[in-house]
């Protein structure tokens, strides 16, 4: 009992770590932007810079939208074709000159995700949906002009989660009802052309990460099977191989608001997770076993 309790506490502490963990990712692009637009990984061509200059360790954008104002600053990465769009992470350090302010936009034409500093100095991230921008996540983390900050986020389409970090501290998360529509427009830029807004201030250390090939695995019958029986309101766990049979099954269940409903350990010999007390709705289950992890969504009607 003591060993099991210790294991559970250790697992719970791992789940509640607040810092951005990039150990599950491979860095695919790294633009320091301290003296030029070079990607130091050597994977991509230089970032395109127009009407910018280098100062304070970063590159300065003057906040003028090039589409309507002569001399506007333009920053845009090349097409980041190596980005695993189902599961990736992003980091950018910034220093703003004015509020409110556009921070960055993903997508040169489709503009499927954007970050901004709102008029109340909080950070707001918005992701697209089929008919335009939809779900947003607002951090109560306040930004001051003239100060450097690091913003990071992670997107996992398997469980529909989008998590925001500020200065390596968890700043909020949301659950998305459907995958982000990206239309293969994999560029990062300093302007929101749809509104004619352009970032004013400094960028540095723009980095993108794709999940390692073994970072997230979906269930496979040859190793482990997870079956949801809606009529019985029960999730069945089938452990196929001996190594799996001898390991405990760790899991968490959250609702679409990102609120944890249940966290637990399914010991060897136990194969059912009952859902009788759950209200009608859509839920996300993440599981961890024998070095593997994965997740899926299910509905209770």
Structure in words:
- This protein is mainly beta.
- It folds into two domains: 25-211, Sandwich (Jelly Rolls), CATH 2.60.120.200; 217-300, Immunoglobulin-like (Sandwich), CATH 2.60.40.3080.
- It has helices at 2-15, 242-245, and strands at 25-31, 48-50, 53-55, 58-62, 74-76, 87-96, 101-106, 113-117, 122-129, 132-142, 149-156, 161-166, 169-175, 188-189, 191-192, 197-198, 200-211, 224-229, 234-239, 249-255, 260-266, 272-274, 281-289, 292-300.
- The strands form six sheets. Strands 1, 3, 4, 6, 11, 12, 13 and 17 form an eight-stranded antiparallel β-sheet that branches. A five-stranded antiparallel β-sheet has the order 10-9-8-7-14, with no helix packed on it.
- The longest helix has 14 residues, at 2-15.
- Going by helix content, strand content and strand pairing, the class is mainly beta
Number of strands: 24
The rounded Rg comes to 22 Å
Number of domains: 2
Distance N terminus to C terminus?
Answer: 36 Å
Q: Indicate the overall shape.
A: elongated
User: What average pLDDT do the residues reach?
Assistant: 81
What oligomeric state is this?
Answer: single chain
CATH class of the largest domain: Mainly Beta
User: What kind of sheet is the major sheet?
Assistant: 8 strands, antiparallel
| CATH architecture type of the largest domain | Sandwich
| CATH third-level topology of the largest domain | Jelly Rolls
Unreliably modeled segments: 1-18, 214-222
What share of the residues does DSSP label as strand, in percent?
over 45%
- The level of helicity is under 10%
Number of helices: 2
Order of helices and strands: HEEEEEEEEEEEEEEEEEEEHEEEEE
């Amino acid at each position: 009992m003591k060993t099991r309790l210790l294991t559970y506490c250790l697992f719970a502490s791992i789940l509640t770590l607040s810092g951005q963990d990039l150990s599950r990712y491979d860095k695919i692009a790294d633009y320091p932007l301290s003296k030029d637009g070079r990607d130091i990984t050597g994977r991509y061509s230089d970032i395109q810079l127009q009407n910018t200059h280098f100062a304070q360790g970063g590159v300065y954008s003057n906040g003028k939208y090039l589409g309507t104002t002569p001399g506007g600053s333009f920053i845009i990465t090349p097409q980041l074709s190596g980005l695993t769009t189902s599961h990736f992470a992003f980091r950018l350090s910034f220093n703003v000159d004015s509020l409110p302010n556009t921070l960055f936009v993903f997508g040169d034409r489709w503009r499927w995700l954007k970050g901004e500093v709102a008029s109340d100095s909080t950070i707001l991230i918005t992701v697209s949906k089929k008919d335009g921008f939809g779900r947003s996540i607002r951090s109560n983390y306040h930004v001051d002009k003239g100060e450097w900050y690091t913003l990071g986020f992670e997107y996992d389409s398997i469980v529909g989660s989008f998590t925001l970090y500020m200065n390596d501290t968890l700043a909020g998360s949301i659950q998305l009802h459907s995958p982000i529509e990206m239309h293969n427009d994999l560029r990062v830029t300093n302007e929101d052309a749809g509104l004619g807004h352009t970032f004013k201030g400094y960028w540095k250390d723009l980095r993108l990460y794709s999940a390692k090939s073994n970072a997230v695995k979906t269930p496979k019958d040859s190793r482990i099977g997870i079956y949801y029986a809606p009529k019985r309101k029960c999730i069945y766990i089938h452990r196929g191989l001996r190594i799996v049979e001898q390991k405990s099954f760790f899991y968490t269940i959250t609702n679409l608001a990102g609120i944890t409903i249940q966290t637990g350990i399914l010991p060897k010999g136990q194969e059912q997770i009952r859902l009788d007390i759950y209200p009608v709705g859509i839920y996300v289950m993440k599981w961890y076993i024998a070095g593997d992890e994965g997740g899926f969504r299910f509905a209770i009607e």
